[in-house]
Structure formats: C-alpha cells, structure tokens
Write a structure and sequence with these properties.
The complex is a heterodimer of chains A (657) and B (508). The termini of chain A are far apart. Helices cover 28% and strands 32% of the residues of chain A. By secondary structure, chain A is α+β, with helices and mostly antiparallel strands. The longest helix of chain A has 22 residues. The radius of gyration of chain A is 27 Å and the shape is globular. Chain B has three domains: 243 residues, Alpha-Beta Complex (2-enoyl-CoA Hydratase, Chain A, domain 1), CATH 3.90.226; 189 residues, 2-enoyl-CoA Hydratase, Chain A, domain 1, CATH 3.90.226; 29 residues, no CATH class. In chain B, the strands form three sheets. In chain B, strands 10, 11, 12, 13, 14, 15, 16 and 17 form an eight-stranded mixed beta sheet that branches. Chain B has a seven-stranded mixed beta sheet with strand order 1-2-3-4-5-7-9, with helices on both faces. In chain B, helix 4 packs parallel to helix 5. The radius of gyration of chain B is 26 Å and the shape is elongated. Classes of the chains: A alpha+beta (657), B alpha/beta (508). At the A-B interface, helix 17 of A face helix 3 and helix 10 of B.
C-alpha cells in the first residue's frame, strides 16, 4: 500500500480523498494555488505545497509542477480527483515515467476514452449503441451552421476536450450557432487547451464501473442525472426510477464490455442517453466514458456501501477487488443535490464572495452526508467551479431520501454569495420530480420564466405566520426585561398581526394555545432572540425555519422560499392599514451588471436603436461569457461603463431612453 | 357614570378628535398617522399619559379668537417604551397644520422641563407647517424657547426627533440640535427655505424631495440619521433605539438579558482580512460577529459610508461602535466621515456609553476638495472627540492604521483603555512603498522594491507598536468578542475626569 498520496485537486473532492486516505492510514499532501492558501483541503492534509497563482492554467493544470511537488514531499501516488488533470493522458504518462502511481485508469484507456470523437468510434466498434450526431471536428462557423442544419435544431455544441458543462452550448437557431460557436471554441481553449468542437444531440443516465488490474470489472449500478441546467448536473440519484433490473443488467454489461475492450481498471463512468419515451428498456445509447471519479459518486456509495476512493486506491496499489458482481446490491435510495454559488432568483447568475455564514445541516444520524471543501469565512472564488457543497441523503425509499433532502436544505445556512438552496428545495418538492417523470429538459420546461421561490401552500403560510408571531413575542418579552423600568415588568402583547405579501394573519398566543385567524394550531418550538434557526413542530410535523431580522419583522426561509413578515402587535397593526405600499423604482430602463465580472464588450453606442434580444454587452465571469441582451426594443440613451472595466453586481452599464 | 365624569369623557373625546374627521382622513390618505396614533405605536400600549389636553391658543388677531381647538396642534405627555419612561410631543397636523403657536411651544417646553428634571429622554414627532403666522413674533419666541431647552437638555437626556411631515424654516433647528433624527420617505422634508424661495432667490428649480427629503438628508447632507418607508417603521425603530440608550447622563447604560455567550469564538474572523492587502472586506461582518446576537443599530448608514457608527450590546449592555469601512473609499477619513463619527463619539461620551473602535484606515483623503473645504478643522473634530472622551474606550486595529489617522482613531495616546491589534495589523506612518520612496529618494526601482520589502517586514505588523506599548496585546481575530467583553467588564469601574472648564472649544 502507498505511504503518501498527493491529491492533485482542490475543494470538496480534495477533502473527500484526504478523508479516505486518513481512514486508511495513508499520509496526504495537498496542493494549492494562491487563491486556496487558506482552504480547508490545505488544512486537512498532512503537508501542503503551493503550486502557483490562482488561475487553474497556472496552478492545478501544471503537471510538471505537481510532479515536482510529489518528488519534494516523497508522495508515491497521486489522486487526481475530477476535472483539472484527471483525464489528461500526458499527466498519467508523466507520473508513470516518474515512477509515481496514478490513482486512476491506465494511460491507454484515458487516451481511448478522452477524445470524445475517438471514443464513440471505439464504442461503435465494440457493438455498443451510439446516438446519432456528428462525429468530427468542425473548422469554422459556416461549417457548424451547415452541419447543425442537417442534424436539425436544437443542437448542442461542445468543446471536444471539455467537460462538466464548460464549453457546452445549446443552440435553437442558426443565429445561436453563429453567436455561440466561436465562444464555445474559446472556452474549450481557455479551460482545457483544446480547440476542436463538435456537435451532437443531447441527453443521459450513467453506469459506474470499477475494475482492478487483474481483469476483474464490475458495474455498481446506475445513477440518474437528468436534472440539469445548461448541461450542468444539479440533482443526481441512485438508483434511477426509470431503470428496471433487466435494463440495469443490459446497461451494466455493455458498460463492462466497453471497459474491458480498453483494458480499463479503477473507477469509471459510462454515460448513456436513455429515451424516456421508450419503455422497452432498450432505448439507451453510449454518450461517453469518464475515466475518473464522478462528482456524484456519493449516491453510488450510499446504495452500495462501498468507498469508491478507497477502492481506487486499493486498485492502484495492485490489490484485487474483494467482491464480485453478485455481491453488488442496492440498499435503499440516495439523492444528491449540488449546492452552487449561483442566484436562482436572478437567472442563476454565478455568484462569488466570502461565506459570511456557512452551516451545513448536521449529519449525525448517518442519513445525511455533506461533501464540502469550504468553511465559514472562506471564499467562493471566481477562479474555479462554483459548487459550494454536495448534499447527499440516504433513505429506504426514493420518497424518504427526497424528504430528507427537504429537511436538510431547510437547515442549510449560507450567507454571502447567492446560492441555489431554495431552488433545490423547490425541485425536491416538485410533484413531477417526485413522480420520477424527469428528463434533461425538466428545469427548462418547469421554470420557463425563471425561479421565483417555491410555491407555499396556505397551510405552510399559516405555520410561518405563527412562527413569526412567536419570535416577535419572544423578542418583545426579552425587550421588557430591560433595566430601569418605571413600574412592574409588562407582559408582551399576546395578539399579533403578521403580514406576508398582501395576506394578513391574526395570531393569538396565550401560553401554549396558539390560533391563526381564529383556528387553533399546534405549535412547539424554542426560540431565543438571536437564533438563526428555529426547529418547530407544527401540528405534529417538523418544520425547520431559518430566521433573520428585518424592519418591523423577520425574514423566514423554509421549504424553498423566503418570506418577509411584517409582525406588529394587534393594537399597532390597526394603524398599519393607513400605510401606503411603496412602488419600487423602475430599473427596467437600465441595463445592470448581473454579476461581478469583466465587461468584455459593449456592442452599442449612445443613440443607437436596438431590437429586443439584440446583444448589448458581454460580461465575463467565472470563465463564462454572458451575453446581455435588450429586453425590449428601444434607443440607447447613454453608456455608463466602458469595455475592459471590472463591474460590481448591479452596476449600471447603460441606460435606455 | 356620574355626570361629572361623563362630561370629562366627552371633553376628552372632543379633544382627541383634533382637527376633525375630515382632516384625519386627509392625513391618512397621505399615508400618515395622526399625532395620537403615532404615540400609540411609539409607547407601550396604554402607557401614554397626556398633559395639557385642553390648552388653547391666546391669539386674538385675524379671526383666530373664534377658532380654538383643544390641545392647540400638539399632543404632549409621557409614556413608557418597554417599561422605561420617555417624554413625547407629537405635532398634530390636523390642527392648524400643526403650526407652532406660543401655547403650542409652551406645551413642548413643559414636558422638556419635566424630562430634564426627572432624567428621561425626549422624543419629538414633528409634523408642522411652521410658525403660526397669525401670532407673529409670539410664535418665533416660542421656537426660541424650545431651542433653548434643546440646548440645555443636550448631553443630559437623549433627544430623538422623528420628522413625519413638513419641517421648514426656523422649525428645523429644534430637531437639528437633538441627538438623532429619523425621517419618513416621501412624506417628510426639512429645509431652511423651501423650493419657492430657492427659485426666487437663486433661480434654481428643485423639488421638495430633492431639497430636503428623507433620502437627501440621510445620504447627501447627513442632517438626518436614518430614512424609513413609513410612519410605523420609523416609530418602531425609535423604540428599538431607545432600548439602547440610558435615560439620562445620570443613569448607567441599560442592561437586558442575552443568551449570547460572552466568549463566543468566531473562527471565520481569522480569515476576514483578505490575503491581498488592497482588497476590501465588509467591516459590518466584524461588528455583527462581535456584538450580542448580531444586533447592530446603525446610524447614518447611507451617509459617509467610509465610517460606520451605531449601537450594539455586549453582555446585554450598550456599546457605541465606530469602525472604518474598507469597502468605501478604502475606509479613509474625510470631512463627512470625521464629522459623522465625531458627533457620535461625543454622544457616547456624554451618556457614559463605552466606545468600541475598529480601525482599518489608510489615512486622510487627499485632494483640493478636502483641503479647501477644511479637512484640517473637520478631521480635528474626531481627534478632539476621542481625546476628550472619558468613557471606556477599546480599540481593535484589524489592518491598516497609517499616519495621523492612526492617532485619531482612539489610539493609546488619546487615552485608549485597551488597544488591541490583530496579527494582520500594520501600524506605520504610511504604506511601505510611499515610505521607501521618501526615505530612499532617487534610488532605482529595483532598490526601491528591495527596500519596500524590508520596510514591510519591519513595519507591516503590529509588533513594533506593541514593543512600544502602543498596542496592549496582539489578539487572535476569533477571540475578539471575548477580549472586548472581558475588557468592558473590567472597565466598568473606570474613573477619569477632564480638568474643570466652563466648556471646551471644539473646532466647530
């Protein structure tokens, strides 16, 4: 077994690998860029080596620097995590040449599967179903338009060496292809150093395979990853509600056959496209094989009881798998949500910044797992992937695992960067998601106008109103314990009026008796002013609510939405009817910078007429170019920013007349 | 009910109707509450005791003798806020437009005198068209009587003004002399001369809102402290503010129970200071993670954002907080921020509220705009305020403390009681590069770079200052709250007096 493993990665996956290595009694070495000098993975590892400035191309993608770090620290193996160098043949080869073990598949298998065009040809030759599409490189925009026309819209363009959603673009029209092709190529180059681009029609489900160096290969069931947004996976689960045992066997055996054909060992994932409409169980096609550990591997670990990182380490060290295909079982159901630093309320724009508060839900009973690589006070940096954490739940049934997600998400506290916790909770509560009738188009279909908070039913709103009133009463009670009072201490008011949106709720609290609009509600909770989480039981059901003070009330967040409550004692509330609702100022004439980033291009000038949908400006953030378009036709009045300027969120870029 | 009591009730009911239902409806239609409704919101339910309900004006000119309304346009009396005594006057716009008559002024003066005698705050709810013109000079005299009492009460009892309607001309000077001013957006304005006069005299065209609205005064002029959306928000916040303040300069700060442990550790503060020294961070986070329950009542949040002032509590007891804000103008001191913080420091000192100062200041803002407008004199105000303050003073330097601004920000030399520094602190005359360019004038860029590194190694830390005793201790950021809480406990018995003087001569 290895003595010391270097983890050539960062964030949650580096922490994940270190945890297993520690468990196995293996020393660990972290590497870090300047942006990560204070990151938890550096803290967790036994040793840490600085490898360069923040940009990945100057740090985490530098194979020679990482190999030098191995030599300097005496590491005898490298775990690459996912992304970065994990699927670089040159890296695996260089390690081999240096006599350092690569905790991953053999070089030739990475090479065979790494090129997405070559891999498809290989799969086809091995007798695996391959999806229609264009297999080849495209030279320029005109050729892309021509090919896209032949395939039929929509088409997806993808940087051939890309992955993880970077460098992928869906095009619905020729115009989209023309606008997106060059950018796709550029991103492919910027992120991964490869400028070949190809097109194919999208979709998928995946099979986890695991092999050793002695020719044993097993499949560890499937994962369903259909809930995606812009080709970035958001929710994953294992097993899949679509897959029958027969289908699982067929998919698994094909995946193993493919792996065997390239002499595969270690963990790998065969991504398949499955036709949801095809009920025969034969409508699956090979998409690609990822020759690394996947982000979503924990759901497989939950249902199989295996530690995939441990298996990878053992395999790399030459050990045999100590189980066979028949030993692989499915124990319950597991769901993973990816918590991203992106703001679903603002079109999912990427968000960065300091984690002013970060408290993931407790994991003590073992059914909730949080894989993260951040701590409170840490930074979500613009240089890397915007994933903050993975929240994994495990239950006896799919429903139970999903319900545990809802409860855990309610307790997940993040303050600072925008995050998608409300959105994830909304997904978990969505009837269509719960039915299992999901497709990769789910988010686009169900949220065509964006996300505005999960809908709250009247029952939930009544509960929230009661909790808000209770918190206000607790606050009033404490305020009446101040020193220097004139007479005897006053009791806090027992009648409260809560306003949520336009709805009013009259809440009476007398001892343990609570009524909302005259109806009794059974409310149990403990709240001390200053608490940020309330664990309540409402009519016998648990309801956890995050609470923050707001003017004349609170903001309560639970079940995928935040509610601003105005809470006033009844005698004051009667006067509140005279208050005039203020109409927020009209900002629609302004083009505001939706995220902190660099203004790469400004396409218009003052006085120019623009059409709805016309690109006005390009903002680069998180390595992605975001085209800002005119919402309606009009004339540009004035420009407030210049190309090349770094803009803050909500900075005015231009004003329309 | 006895007839005599019945008569009393009828008289009270008539008085409570003020200017009549029509005018009350008009007030409501503007989103404004009536004078008595405002008091209902402000005071504990049923606690308000009205005085002088039957006072009427004494004017006999212009037909005024036939128009008398009991109360004469202002409701005065006392009540409690969370059980603590306050005196309140609330101008009644439904009665003669809330205009100030001689008797109206007398009513205000009476409760101010009472407040001063017993030691309780005065809260003024202003909603007045101005002087009662029919009374002429008698009305002006009334204003001056109020002004005189504002001045006498200043530093003796806290005075809070809520501008909830017009407040123009001489009337503005009463709130101007109180400690804090809240304004209501869209329905209140304050100016010495209104838009019409401005147009006549200077030809400027300006709206009431632009000239003296809540937004103008809480962002640009700094005349008012906080702007609120409506009457109820403003009154509710006034209750919250009063909870922070001692009743008078004879009383200790109020104390209330809290569950927040004094020794709460905040590991995230160890990473508050960014790795790059030129990168800003939000000082609010340090404040919120230091005070009880993250509860911070910020004053003037929208004006001179390069300095933060406001109230919080530590172990349930009020503290005043002054902090440089690196997010705005790098946290430098300029005219506005110096004035803003100086008055706040003097308020705290007057009312025995301990002062916490968080320092990250690169210096004073350079430029002709500053120099020609008197940064020397205005900057001196803050220096003066800190130097004369005798309340417990605890200072934490988080990062930069450069030049004269280091001295100003509650340094050891200005009788700071406990001066702490984080390990990230840099206490120096100026930034390393600037210093080296002066010391080694004319050297090559390479030499400068080398010397800069040397200078940084020598001075970009708190230990040089600590070796001289200017810093009492270098503390771990995560234990800031604990250090401050313990420090405040120990300083409760602090006794320090300035030499006797009639009064000082602060550079105004």
């Amino acid at each position: 077994m290895f003595k010391k493993i270097l983890i050539a990665n960062r964030g949650e996956i580096a922490c994940r690998v270190i945890r297993t290595a520690k468990k196995m009694g293996i020393a660990t070495v972290a590497v870090y860029s300047d942006a990560d000098a204070r990151s938890p993975h550096v803290e967790m590892a036994d040793e840490a080596v600085r490898i360069g400035p923040p940009a990945a191309s100057e740090s985490y993608l530098l194979a020679d620097v990482i190999i030098a770090a191995c030599k300097a620290t005496g590491a005898d193996a490298v775990h690459p995590g996912y992304g970065f160098l994990s699927e670089r043949t040159s890296f695996a080869q260089a390690l081999k040449d240096a006599g350092i073990a690569f905790i991953g598949p053999p070089v030739n298998a990475i090479a065979a599967m790494g090129d997405k065009i070559e891999s498809k040809k290989l799969a086809k030759a091995a007798g695996v179903n391959v999806v229609p599409g264009f297999l080849g490189e495209i030279a320029d925009t005109d050729e892309a338009v021509k090919i896209a026309g032949e395939i039929g819209y929509p088409v997806m363009m993808k940087a051939s060496a890309g992955g993880g959603g970077k460098g992928m673009r869906l095009a619905y029209s020729e115009q989209d292809v023309r606008e997106g092709f060059e950018a796709t190529k550029r991103e492919g180059l910027a992120s991964f150093g490869d400028d070949r681009v190809f097109i194919e029609s999208p979709r998928h489900i995946e099979i986890q395979v695991l092999g050793d160096q002695h020719g044993n290969i097993v499949y560890l069931n499937e994962r369903e990853c259909s809930i995606q947004r812009r080709h970035q996976k958001v929710v994953e689960e294992a097993p899949s509600p679509f897959v029958t045992p027969k289908m699982r066997k067929a998919m698994g055996e094909q995946a193993v056959a493919l792996a065997r054909a390239v002499g595969y060992y270690s963990a790998g994932t065969v991504e398949l496209i499955v036709s949801g409409a095809d009920k025969t169980g034969e409508g699956f096609y090979f998409l690609e094989m990822n020759t690394r550990l996947q982000v979503e591997h924990p759901v497989t670990e939950c249902i199989t009881g295996l530690d995939l990182v441990e298996q990878m380490i053992r395999v790399a060290a030459g050990e045999k798998l100590d189980f066979g295909q028949d030993d692989v079982k499915i124990n319950g159901w597991s769901v993973e949500n990816r918590v991203y630093a992106e703001d679903p309320y603002r079109g999912f724009l990427p968000s960065t910044g300091r984690l002013v508060r970060y408290n993931p839900p407790a994991t003590s009973d073992g059914s909730v797992r949080v894989d993260d690589g951040v701590v409170e006070g840490g930074e979500v940096s613009m240089f890397y992937d915007p994933m903050i954490a993975k929240l994994i739940t495990h239950g006896a049934t799919r429903e139970e695992a999903i319900d545990k997600q809802i409860a855990a998400l309610d307790r997940f506290e993040i303050e600072g960067p925008g995050h998608n916790i409300d959105f994830l909770s909304a997904l978990m509560q969505h009837p269509r998601f719960r039915s299992g009738e999901i497709t990769t188009g789910f988010i686009a279909e169900e949220y065509p106008d964006g996300f505005h908070g999960a809908p709250a039913d009247p029952e939930l709103l009544r509960s929230i109103a009661a909790i808000g009133a209770f918190a206000a009463m607790a606050g009033a009670d404490r305020a009446r314990r101040i020193s220097g009072q004139l007479g005897q201490r006053l009791d806090p008011p027992s009648g409260w009026q809560v306003k949520i949106g336009d709805a009013l709720y009259d809440v009476m609290i007398r001892g343990d008796d609570v009524t909302v609009n005259g109806e009794a509600i059974e409310l149990e909770l403990e709240y001390t002013p200053g608490d940020r989480l309330i664990e309540a039981t409402v009519n016998g059901a648990d309801l956890d609510v995050r609470i923050a003070p707001a003017r004349s009330g609170f903001k309560l967040t639970t079940r995928g939405a935040s509610h601003v409550l105005r809470v006033l004692p009844a005698h004051v509330a009667s006067h509140a009817t005279h208050m005039i609702a203020k109409i927020p100022p009209d900002l629609s004439r302004f083009l505001l910078c939706p995220m902190p980033g660099l203004l790469v291009a400004l396409h218009v000038e003052a006085g120019e007429k623009v059409e709805a949908g016309q690109p006005l400006a390009v903002i680069e953030a998180m390595k992605m170019e975001n085209i800002l378009r005119a919402e309606k036709a009009g004339v540009v009045k004035s420009l407030s920013a210049v190309a090349g300027e770094s803009l803050a969120v909500d900075a005015v870029i231009l004003e329309m007349e | 009910m006895l007839p005599i009591v019945e008569q009393l009730e009828a008289k009270r009911a008539a008085a409570r109707l003020g200017g009549g239902q029509k005018r009350i409806d008009a007030q409501h239609s503007k989103g404004k509450l009536t004078a008595r409704e405002r008091i209902d919101v402000l005071c504990d339910e049923g606690s308000f005791e009205e005085l002088d309900m039957y006072v009427e004006h004494n004017c006999v000119d212009f037909g005024m003798e036939s128009q008398k309304i009991p109360g004469d346009g202002v409701v005065t009396g006392s009540g409690t806020i969370n059980g603590r005594l306050v005196y309140v006057f609330s101008q009644d716009f439904t009665v003669f437009g809330g205009s100030l008559s001689e008797r109206h002024a007398q009513k205000i003066c009476k409760i101010m005198d009472m407040a001063l005698k017993v030691g309780a705050p005065v809260i003024g709810l202003n909603d007045s068209g101005g002087a009662r013109i029919q009374e002429g000079v008698a009305s002006l005299g009334g204003y001056a009587e109020v002004f005189q009492r504002n001045v006498l009460a200043s530093g003796v009892v806290p005075q809070l003004s809520l501008i909830m309607g017009p407040c123009a001309g001489g009337a503005v000077y009463s709130p101007a002399m109180t400690d804090f001013i809240f304004m209501v957006k869209d329905s209140s304005y304050m100016f010495v001369t209104g838009p019409d006069v401005v147009k006549t005299v200077t030809n400027e065209v300006v709206t009431q809102e632009e000239l003296g609205g809540a937004v103008t005064h809480t962002t640009k002029s700094g005349v008012a402290d906080v702007a609120f959306e409506n009457d109820i928000e403003a009154l509710w916040a006034a209750r919250t503010l009063i909870d922070f303040l001692p009743l008078s300069n004879r009383e200790e700060v109020p104390e209330r129970p809290t569950a927040d442990p004094f020794d709460r550790i905040e590991p995230s503060l160890d990473m508050l200071i960014p790795a790059n020294a030129n990168q800003p961070y939000d000082m609010h986070e340090l404040i919120r993670k230091t005070v009880d329950e993250g509860d911070f009542f910020e004053m003037q949040p929208a004006h001179a954002g390069n300095i933060i002032i406001g109230f919080g509590r530590v172990e349930g007891r009020t503290v005043g907080i002054v902090a440089n804000q690196p997010m705005v103008l790098a946290g430098c001191l300029d005219i506005n921020s110096s004035k803003k913080a100086a008055r706040f420091v003097r308020f705290c000192d007057a009312f025995e509220i301990p002062i916490l100062t968080f320092v990250d200041v690169p210096g004073f803002l350079p430029g002709t705009a500053q120099e020609l407008n008197g940064i020397i004199k205005h900057g001196a105000k803050l220096l003066y305020a800190y130097a004369e303050a005798t309340v417990p003073k605890i200072t934490v330097i988080t990062r930069k403390a450069y030049g004269g601004a280091y001295d100003v920000m509650a340094s050891k030399h200005l009788r700071g009681d406990l001066n702490y520094a984080w390990p990230t602190a840099e206490i120096a005359v100026m930034g390393a590069k600037g210093a080296v360019e002066i010391i080694f004038r004319g050297k090559t860029p390479e030499e400068i770079a080398e010397r800069t590194a040397e200078y940084e190694a020598r001075f970009a830390n708190p230990f040089v200052a600590a070796s001289k005793g200017f810093i009492d201790e270098v503390i771990a950021p995560h234990s800031t709250r604990k250090r401050i809480a313990l420090g405040l406990r120990k300083l409760r018995g602090k006794q320090l007096e300035n030499p006797w003087k009639k009064h000082d001569n602060i550079p105004l």
